[in-house]
Amino acid sequence: MSCIERILTEARDLSRDDLILLVNKLMEGFSHESATSSPKKMIAPRLDCPICHSNAHVVRNGHKHGKQAYICRQCGTSFVTTSNTLLSGSHFGTEIWTKVLEETLRGTSLDKTVKSLASHGCKISHSSLFFMRHKIMLALEDMQVEQPATVEDVVEADETYVPESKKGTKFGPDASRKPRKRGTPASKRGLSDEQICICTAVQRKTGDLIVKSENRARPSSANVVDIYTGHVQKGTLFLTDGMNVYPRLGKILGITVMNVKKESAGFFNLNTVNNLHSFIKRRYTEYRGVATKYLNRYNLVFRAAYRQRTTIGELAETLFASRNPKKVHHYGDVKELNLLAI
Ligand SMILES: [Zn+2]
Questions:
Q1: Residue 324 CA to ligand 1 centre (angstroms)
Q2: Which of 179, 184, 229, 293 could covalently link to 171 via disulfide, CB atoms 3.0 to 4.6 Å apart?
Q3: Is pLDDT of 181 > 70?
Q4: CA nearest to 88, candidates 115, 64, 57, 114
Q5: What is the spatial distance between Cα 259 and Cα 157, in angstroms, rounded to a whole number?
Q6: Rounded distance from Cα 42 to ligand 1 centre (Å)
Q7: With a threshold of 0.90, does the pTM exceed it?
């Protein structure tokens, strides 16, 4: 009897749950070989117990709220596929969440996404969609904390500006200004404190980028030091438009800052970062503006959409499959966490 025949004979005596466990164990080897392999090809997802983190004792245990339920035979914990993930507590499955992620990265407004989902038979309110999108953005923030963005080699840096937006907030009698109708320009001309600064630095060859807002109007030297410290590798050639806030950054980070305007054209240009700015402006319009307090969340979306290192499916897998009880965000987090208060 060959080795494979012997294994198959023994496998016949296994229970259904043990059989699934065995197949998933075997599939693990393959999934490492092919990072792009779809999880749908697997018989069932490999699940770690959210409490004891063992996956050797996790078996199916009926259904709960329409989702496959599991029980860990080691510690007795019952859980569903979405426990402790971004999707926990949601009425919607991975397919709808992936669609929301896709529309968010594409720059589709919430109104249009509601209509698009409805045309696919999924009824979802504007406010539910708002929370789904913001939970995705909070997960992108968590990813950024775990793997901070860095740039190196030749980097182009410049600032771009978007009008301040109080979208979603009610203007009371004590408001500092009257509400602005969407699309109307700021009342003050030129670069005023009604303009929010987005600092950007993009690595010319790879498109890796840093994008963050911290102030109104022009950034200070302290702003750029704060934004870029820890994100630009030593020895980087940092091409800028010659604003006097950058030379100090050069000394602190051990990078070479060059004023492109002083150099002749050719290699010394800011074309890549200018392209990035056009992209951000386009997205900002497509979203129909972004409330300033949420701008840094959207900056991470701009980053993910511009870079496109991974496919939407791969990003969805990373965001939705991650099980970390500390990173399951709720209503309050969406309204309060890491807001841009300037
Ligand atoms: Zn367990």
A1: 14
A2: 179
A3: no
A4: 64
A5: 10
A6: 22
A7: no
pLDDT-derived band at 141 (thresholds 50, 70, 90) equals: very high
Question: How confident is the model over 72-87, as pLDDT tens digits?
Answer: 999 998 888 787 888 8
**Mean pLDDT value of segment 179-184:** 60
CA distance 64 to 273: 49
| Confidence band, pLDDT 50/70/90 cuts, at residue 295 | very high
> How close is the Cα of 55 to the center of ligand 1, in Å?
8
Q: Residue 75 C-alpha to ligand 1 middle, in angstroms?
A: 4
Q: How far is the CA of 67 from the centre of ligand 1 (A)?
A: 19
Tokens of 323: 């099980």
**From the CA of 29, how far away is ligand 1's center (Å)?**
23
Tally of CA atoms within 13 A in the half-sphere of 302 that contains its CB: 30
How far apart CA 129 and CA 328 sit, in angstroms, is: 17
Cα–ligand 1 centroid distance for 57 (angstroms) = 7
Distance 73 CA to ligand 1 centre (A): 7
Distance 76 CA to ligand 1 centre (A): 6
Cα separation, 242 vs 259, whole angstroms: 4
Domains of the chain and CATH, by start: 3-80 (no CATH), 149-168+185-309 (3.30.420.10)
CA distances (Å), origin 187, targets 163, 194, 292: 10, 8, 17
